[in-house]
């Protein structure tokens, strides 16, 4: 038994003045009487003197004082905790894409993985258990309560992801679970100064850094420019090479179909200035389908040296215009007259049937209850459907922002697109605003685009004026209409899905069949309807159903991960920065450790109980009937002993 603040026990001395208050002599007030003659005839006192004692209320109040002083002193008992294996050691391994950078004879990830396994064994030798965490796109707990060999096996089976990682988030998760005495060991290639950690997490986390320097050029983007407006066999692929180095580099960009039997490999040479970008253009490609772009020669970070894309084959595009405006029909026919392999058909809104949809369907002024198959555009729809949401019509809208999108490419002064009135569009999970404005002081959506169930969908709050589509001076409307048809042009049956690593791939609606995803390494995973698995590997995936197979082309593109340069390891940037908690921690005692168990709560409960007891004592004194005092005049004449002389003297 002990006290955290023993000086508070000095408050017990207050019991002495409390006792004096109860024991001090009390005198009756003096009274004036006519004569003492009769009182002096009495030889002895009528009432014998009584000794004063301490009433029950004093003892209750003294106990209250003792309980309060004890609570303020912070009582505790000590308990010896036997040596055990508390799960207070966390080992976090960074599995982000940049860890795949070459380092010596291997990669940063391989070196860090071996060091993490050795650290797990050392922790187990101290008598502690290990929790292993992988810091990928999302922190992932590999196992808890592990011994050294179990944790080492988990780390050895782990591989780095082809996506950006979040080691700081994983360290925060580990520090929150480690408790006030736990430790966290983070194995990463990020410098400690670049890790944004809370104060508690930084105090608990020892950073083990791997890798320095690094030479890298990244294939940052591959853009395919192929549409029905191009001549037969004409298409273009533009590859952008970005440098993360401090010196110029000369490299070749190779473009080849994944199926080598489709055509030859094409090559362009580019010179990239330090910390800048350069493009390589491939025109009039003689093949179509899935292709690969590659930077040759490679560098220290091979993941971003390759990108995949899809070049659609040429085919006739069927465009259906649903309108009752004859002038708009004539304007669209004139607009598409010079486009090769394009067929335009017009349907009146009253005659619309779902089976009348084309490869591209454009609705003027309304939206059917059921969206059509294929790509679709809604021009100033008066009503909504599952594709587009329409709200109250705003007042006169003014242009506020035009975002970067293929629909707005080359559109100068998009404010001229606003004609007459606009409808109220609302953004959704599938449609994102690309043109916004303000009306009555609030933001409004003027144009939105996106995808839904593998289809491309566009919606505008404004209508296209027929006279502008035939007027060369009304370039914004003319260019926007051409971009609309170009962007909605289908890629053909069996077209690949192009994604970036780290994105999620939605497997369709609840009515869709189960999809089997096959990774580039051949691993298979069945995805239930509505699931959205993460594409954590770059390469050519396959999505299989019972009736068809669809290629899924996944490329890595992340400037933050591609910049693999790290500070040189030295005194200013050491390889290991121990946590303050780990540096000050005492070695474990094999005989166990002593732990304090506070006992303040029982003292406070006793204090509350004594307060209730004091109230009951006071209440009983107040409610008790008052006893008659024999010295009181109401019981007869009061007499006092005579001042002198024997008893009975006159």
Q: In percent, how much strand structure appears in the residues?
A: 25-35%
Largest sheet: 8 strands, mixed
Structural class: alpha+beta
Question: Stretches where pLDDT falls below 50 for ≥5 residues?
Answer: 629-650
Q: How many strands in all? A: 33
Mean pLDDT: 83
Number of helices: 12
Shape: elongated
Description of the structure:
It is a single chain. The protein has 650 residues and is of the alpha+beta class. Helices cover 20% and strands 29% of the residues. Helix 2 (56-73) runs antiparallel to helix 12 and helix 3 (108-125) packs antiparallel against helix 4. The longest helix has 24 residues, at 600-623. The chain is elongated.
Short description:
This protein has 12 helices and 33 strands. The protein is α+β, with helices and mostly antiparallel strands and 650 residues long.
Task: Itemize the secondary structure elements and their pairings.
Elements: E1 2-3, H1 15-23, H2 56-73, E2 75-81, E3 89-94, E4 102-103, E5 106-107, H3 108-125, E6 130-135, E7 139-146, H4 148-156, H5 167-178, E8 183-188, H6 199-204, E9 205-209, E10 217-225, E11 236-243, E12 249-257, E13 266-272, E14 277-283, E15 289-296, E16 306-311, E17 317-322, H7 326-336, E18 342-347, E19 360-364, E20 375-379, E21 389-391, E22 398-402, E23 424-426, E24 431-439, E25 442-452, E26 455-460, H8 466-469, H9 475-488, E27 497-500, E28 515-518, E29 524-527, E30 539-544, E31 549-555, H10 559-562, E32 576-577, H11 580-583, E33 593-598, H12 600-623
Parallel strand pairs: 3-6, 3-8, 8-9, 17-18, 17-19, 19-20, 20-26, 27-31
Antiparallel strand pairs: 1-2, 2-33, 4-5, 6-7, 9-32, 10-11, 11-14, 12-13, 12-15, 15-16, 21-23, 22-24, 24-25, 25-26, 28-29, 28-30, 30-31
Helix pairs in contact: 2-12, 3-4
């Amino acid at each position: 038994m002990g006290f955290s603040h023993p000086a508070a026990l000095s408050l017990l001395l207050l019991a002495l003045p409390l006792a004096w208050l109860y024991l001090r002599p009390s005198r009756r007030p003096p009274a004036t009487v006519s004569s003492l003659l009769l009182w002096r005839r009495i030889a002895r006192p009528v009432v014998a003197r009584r000794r004063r004692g301490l009433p029950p209320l004093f003892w209750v109040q003294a106990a209250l004082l003792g309980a309060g002083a004890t609570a303020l002193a912070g009582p505790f008992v000590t308990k010896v905790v036997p040596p055990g294996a508390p799960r207070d050691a966390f080992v976090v391994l960074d599995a982000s894409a940049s860890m795949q950078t070459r380092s010596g004879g291997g990669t940063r990830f391989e070196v860090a993985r071996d060091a993490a396994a050795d650290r797990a064994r050392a922790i187990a030798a101290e008598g502690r258990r290990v929790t292993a965490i992988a810091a990928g796109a999302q922190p992932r707990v590999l196992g808890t309560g592990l011994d050294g060999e179990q944790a080492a096996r988990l780390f050895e089976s782990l591989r780095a992801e082809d996506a950006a990682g979040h080691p700081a988030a994983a360290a925060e998760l580990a520090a929150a679970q480690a408790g006030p005495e736990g430790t966290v060991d983070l194995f990463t290639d990020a410098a400690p100064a670049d890790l944004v950690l809370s104060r508690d997490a930084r105090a608990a986390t020892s950073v083990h850094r791997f890798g320095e320097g690094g030479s890298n050029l990244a294939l940052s983007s591959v853009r395919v420019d192929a549409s029905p407006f191009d001549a037969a066999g004409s298409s273009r692929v533009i590859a952008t090479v970005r440098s993360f180095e401090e010196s110029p580099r000369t490299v070749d960009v190779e473009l080849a179909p994944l199926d080598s039997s489709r055509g030859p490999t094409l090559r362009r040479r580019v010179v990239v200035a330090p910390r800048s970008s350069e493009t390589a253009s491939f025109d009039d490609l003689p093949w179509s389908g899935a292709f690969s772009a590659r930077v040759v020669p490679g560098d220290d970070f091979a993941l971003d040296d390759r990108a995949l894309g899809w070049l659609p084959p040429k085919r006739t595009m069927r465009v259906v215009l649903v309108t009752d405006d004859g002038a708009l029909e004539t304007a669209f026919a004139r607009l598409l007259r010079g486009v090769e392999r394009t067929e335009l058909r017009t349907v009146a809104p009253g005659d619309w049937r779902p089976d009348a949809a084309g490869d591209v369907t454009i609705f003027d002024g309304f939206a059917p209850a059921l969206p059509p198959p294929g790509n679709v555009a809604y021009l100033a729809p008066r009503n909504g459907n599952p594709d587009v949401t329409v709200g109250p019509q705003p007042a006169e809208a003014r242009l506020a922002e035009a975002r970067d999108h293929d629909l707005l490419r080359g559109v100068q002064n998009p404010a001229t697109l606003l004609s007459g009135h606009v409808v109220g569009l609302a953004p959704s999970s599938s449609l994102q605003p690309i043109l916004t404005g303000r009306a009555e002081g609030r933001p409004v959506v003027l144009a939105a685009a996106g995808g839904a169930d593998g289809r491309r969908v566009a919606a505008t709050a404004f209508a296209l004026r027929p006279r502008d589509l035939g007027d060369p001076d009304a370039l914004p409307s003319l260019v926007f209409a051409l971009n609309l048809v170009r962007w909605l042009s289908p890629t053909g049956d069996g077209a690949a899905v192009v994604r970036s690593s780290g994105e999620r791939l939605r497997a369709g609606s609840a009515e869709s069949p189960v999809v089997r995803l096959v990774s580039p390494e051949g691993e298979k995973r069945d995805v239930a309807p509505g699931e959205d698995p993460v594409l954590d590997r770059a390469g050519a995936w396959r999505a299989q159903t019972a009736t068809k197979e669809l290629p899924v082309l996944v490329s890595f593109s992340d400037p933050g991960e591609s910049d693999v340069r790290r500070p040189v390891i030295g005194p200013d940037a050491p390889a290991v920065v121990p946590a303050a908690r780990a540096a000050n921690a005492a070695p474990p005692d094999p005989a166990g450790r002593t732990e304090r168990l506070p006992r303040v709560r029982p003292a406070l409960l006793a204090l509350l109980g004594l307060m209730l007891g004091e109230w009951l004592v006071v209440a009983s004194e107040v409610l008790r009937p008052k006893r008659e005092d024999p010295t009181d005049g109401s019981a007869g004449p009061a007499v006092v002993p005579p001042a002198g002389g024997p008893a009975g003297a006159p």
